[in-house]
Amino acid sequence: MGELIKTSQEYPRLLRSIKDAPKVLYYAGEYNPAIFFNTLAVVGSRAVTAYGEWVVTNIVKELARAGLTIVSGFMYGVDALAHKAALDAAGKTIAVMAGGVSHIFPSYQEDLYNRIVATGLVVSEFNETCMGGGWSFVRRNRIVAGLSKAVFVVEAGESSGSLITAGIAKACGRKLFTVPSNLNSLNSFGTTKLLKAGATLVSEPGDILNAYPFSNITNNSRVSTVSSVNKRLLNADWLGTFPGRVYKKLCLEPQTADDLARYFEKTITEVLTTATELVMGGDIHEKEGKYYVN
Amino acid sequence: MLTKVKSAYFFGTDAFEVDVEVNILERCMPGFEIVGLAGREVAESRERVKNAILNAYGRFPYDKKIVVNLAPADIPKEGSYYDLSIAAGILSLTFAIQFPCDSAFFGEVSMDGQVRKTRGAYLFGAFAKAKAIKNLFVPSDCYQELSSIKDVTIYPISNLSQLANFADLKAPPTTDLETVRRSLPSRICDVDFCDILGQDTAKRALVISAAGGHSILLSGSPGSGKSREYEVGEVAKIYSASGFVDDLIVQNLCRPFRSPHHTISYSGMVGGGSVPKPGEISLAHKGVLFLDEMSEFQPSILECLRQPMEDGFITISRSKGSVRMPCEFTLVGCTNPCPCGFFGDPKNVCKCSPPDVARYKKRLSGPILDRIDIFLRIHNPAYEVQSTYSGFMGGGKAEKVSDQLRARVEKARAAQELRLEAEHIGINARMTNDLVKKYCVLDHTCSDLLERAVYKLALTPRTVFKIIKVARTIADLDEALTILPSHLAEAIQYKCI
């Protein structure tokens, strides 16, 4: 637990450069100046979809592994997933709280908070257990953007906090990255808007890593592309079998057992049996009644 | 002049003998008294009986003192079914009607002398049989209900005037239960499975649940609610006809289907009252207890289902005594996935925060979920399904499939009964872990698959047993003697968590 004064040496340089940087930045966790280098804000919708989750767990995890510090707002949805992805990759992460540094909100994410404090940093412009409020969530966004060299937006609704963060980042001259979503998804409004306004489209971790100087990144492994995850799609023999056909269909779009049975004109029994086979093989998983490729 | 006839006193599903003693005194102040801790309904029977006798026989001994004693006198009597015994006593003294000495009477009379249909006739019949009472006088409308009671002469009475020549009474024609049961499909199945669009997984799971008596929990968005209820109602019909007619619900000729509202009280659910009456769980004995919006039930009421679900009976203790009532029901629950109902829905955005969803899910406690075998998440069928699809189970044609399914369910039930005969349980769902080990031997491939599933899906031992039980039922539906890997693989997908 400690505080960084705006005028001091320890205060993050990037944050100091923004217009209304907080005079004092409180923090919880072990202070290490290196954590403020190569920072990337990952922000997005609270109502994260399976697709958003996939993006965070596949792309952000790779970024954290490559050495980027993932900065986010500790909210549930994309924020929490981004912190988790960074921690799971044994990477660095900074959580910017809307209230005081000791005020865990949402409170049920206490485990995540403790994990971040143990290996990363929790920061806020407010002291101790200050409660914050609706307004402080918006104010928090300027710190998220200010701490980061670039902002990566994963899924954002029409009028979301993520767009506010992106706007601040743009005003401060930070780079903007985003991934496209299906146009018929509510979560695509924000990201599509950003793409039209000139944000950089991300399709693999390298797209973001290229914007960072790699001189001080210790683990300098080049990141594999996301599409190479689907090695199974290269096995033509297997794709001809029923499980293979189901897998290929699921690669297009998540499906329920009903959808699959109707599409392949098979009985539910056959579909469920095949699903078990694929789940056992680690190819797919089930969530809320739908099957997704891993 | 004194006469005695027999009646009974019910406590829960138990019955005890009551002597109805009627005395008519000549030299006394005229009057009509009922003594022996008679409740309000019993005391009111004075007026019913008086008017009924007047209307059926034209006169009543107004000028005499009539005293009726219900013995034993220290037990409170409730219910309107003592009317017939009181009337019979008075008639026997006034009109010198000789009833056989071993006679018991049951029934409520109306003012015009008619004998009305009265609740509890079957209980009374069973009591008479147990006590070896030879002659039973009951309302003629209850005769069908008693048709399975043997060794007791039953006199169906429709009017008090018939008591004078009871020996000439002819039994009304009754229908053979087996014939009625066979005629059921056309009568009660006005909804067919192929009328329900899509939802094939749900249909399949419900058939499995019906076949093996497995408890099932369906969760889905509000839009799918209507079809859900529809479906479950349909399955109730499958259930009803799949089973053999249960004595206790003779009138219905089908398995019970109870769907209490979520505002139900504790006593309404498990049974209660100072003289315990069966609750919904006992009324659903051998049938289905359907809890729509299961998460909305008070947690304490859901928790009290735990023990009955395990034991198959409930003991209700009250100051007046305790009674044990059977309650082997299959639980069919429906719930929304979250407070707004749209969590995981592809078309609508869920407005709930993760803690809201988690809290909502927590409303169904672990011990209750532990007792549910099949979990299913259902989605709204897509629009194109609703408009063009008529169900592949019916081969795409509007062909009635429910009859076919019922036949399969019946076969599966018969197979289970045969296998589990020695254990005195009829359905796979009631197998204990020991019985699962005994009757569901898995071959090498199956146990290998299960082992991998345990590792991959982090299954608990309890879940493993549930999967095996469901797999056994799937095998029974397939008419397979042993569980095959495909049966197990299907069972694993019913999210047995």
From TrEMBL, chain B:
One of its GO terms (molecular function) is ATP binding. This is Mg chelatase, subunit ChlI. Residues 401-495 form the Mg chelatase-related protein C-terminal domain. Residues 192-381 form the Magnesium chelatase ChlI-like catalytic domain. NCBIfam families: YifB family Mg chelatase-like AAA ATPase. It comes from candidate division WWE3 bacterium GW2011_GWC2_44_9. InterPro entries: CHLI-like, Mg_chelat-rel, Mg_chelat-rel_C, Mg_chelatse_chII-like_cat_dom, P-loop_NTPase, Ribosomal_Su5_D2-typ_SF, Ribsml_uS5_D2-typ_fold_subgr. It comes from the Bacteria. Signal peptide: none annotated.
